[in-house]
Amino acid sequence: MTAEVGPRRRSDARDNRERILAVARLAFATEGLDVPLREIARRAEVGAATLYRHFATKDALLSEAFAEQMETCSAIVAEGLATPDPWQGFRLVVERLMELHALDRGFARVFTSRLPEAVFAADRDRTLRMLLELVGRAKKAGPLRRDFVIEDLSLALMANEGIRAESPATRVAASRRFAALMLQSFMADPVAAPLPPPVRLPLTRA
Amino acid sequence: MTAEVGPRRRSDARDNRERILAVARLAFATEGLDVPLREIARRAEVGAATLYRHFATKDALLSEAFAEQMETCSAIVAEGLATPDPWQGFRLVVERLMELHALDRGFARVFTSRLPEAVFAADRDRTLRMLLELVGRAKKAGPLRRDFVIEDLSLALMANEGIRAESPATRVAASRRFAALMLQSFMADPVAAPLPPPVRLPLTRA
DNA sequence: ACCGTAACGGAACACCCCGTCCGGTTGACT
DNA sequence: AGTCAACCGGACGGGGTGTTCCGTTACGGT
């Protein structure tokens, strides 16, 4: 799936493609999905048509741009699954996923929606299976409440998306506290643990 | 501020105004804030200009449309404050506010943003003061964790907003479970209590 | 050095939105 | 009934977005 030589491509085209992807990733991450394609083209110093020649539609661009993050998700879950203590693994997954989603608004949005573009479906399913396994272990080991369902994680991630803030830093800080709260509520025999510092939330304008 | 007779108005105009408000409330509640004004005008069987004559700008319409819900919020908090057991009061407030916000997406959005249109500022501040009082009592009584800050409620409400679903019913169900989870994490000496039923989340498309 | 063709970029298309202006219509008071 | 202000709906201008058209450029193999 990578580095197929394919028909010899012109090198400038290849460069443009990379540049567009890089710019798009940054833009979507920091500004969300509704960044105009024109703007991305402009920042990549490319005409609109060029962008469309490389990515037939906006969705296509989104899929490609987020493939990387999708793999990061997989990796996070895999790491959680590899952690000896299932609860620690679960906790790590929740914290890391939420942080990732807080840092990349666009990806968060795509992740909780469904753009079942083939690119995603595979990773998604694999990740989901690993998650189910991890959840099973964490329940069996005791700390995760028995009535937890995988949808509760979706719920938590969607909710995490709702957290808006002026700066990414603020958003991450708020998200961190939120993750700690959620984790607390996921415990079978909860113990009130200290939380990350509260965040002053200067409500966003839009 | 209400029912000023003012200069005799034509009755048809008055009717139109009411109809527009009713339609707008419904539309904003079920579809969010970005319903085109034209669409609202169309549903109210009124021309665009008519709508603008009654409400100078979209923000003006929003303010008027949500004034009612804003009062409902106040009422909820007041009721919570009037509840003998502070924790029960707090719990009631969280549950009711979240349900209200789940039922009315538009209002939720306006509430967690700041449209400090004079109409709101007053209610908002009053409500906030009551909330602080309630939080203080709930902490003093014991059940609410000491490191809870009022921003955590904002956080929870924003997060609640992130919960998307196809139907309002699904959204409310999901929101209910979410509220229960959050309440659990707000407790100083948490006891894992049963949760509302989990919700299958057929991820939304957009 | 040359030239075919892949790749390019700006402008144009089609659509949607907010907010305003205009000529015809209708309610209410005399 | 008559009159006039207030109201009405439709058309208009300005701005924005995803996507496509088409004349032009410049890569890269010979």
UniProtKB/TrEMBL annotation, chains A, B:
GO terms for molecular function: DNA-binding transcription factor activity; transcription cis-regulatory region binding. InterPro entries: Homeodomain-like_sf, HTH-type_TetR-like_transc_reg, HTH_TetR, Tet_transcr_reg_TetR-rel_C_sf. The keyword Chaperone does not apply. Keywords: DNA-binding, Transcription, Transcription regulation. It comes from the Bacteria. It holds the Pfam family TetR_N. SUPFAM superfamilies: Homeodomain-like, Tetracyclin repressor-like, C-terminal domain. The keyword Transcription regulation applies. Residues 14-73 form the HTH tetR-type domain. Residues 36-55 bind DNA. PANTHER family: HTH-TYPE TRANSCRIPTIONAL REGULATOR BETI, HTH-TYPE TRANSCRIPTIONAL REGULATOR RUTR. This is TetR family transcriptional regulator. It comes from Herbidospora solisilvae.
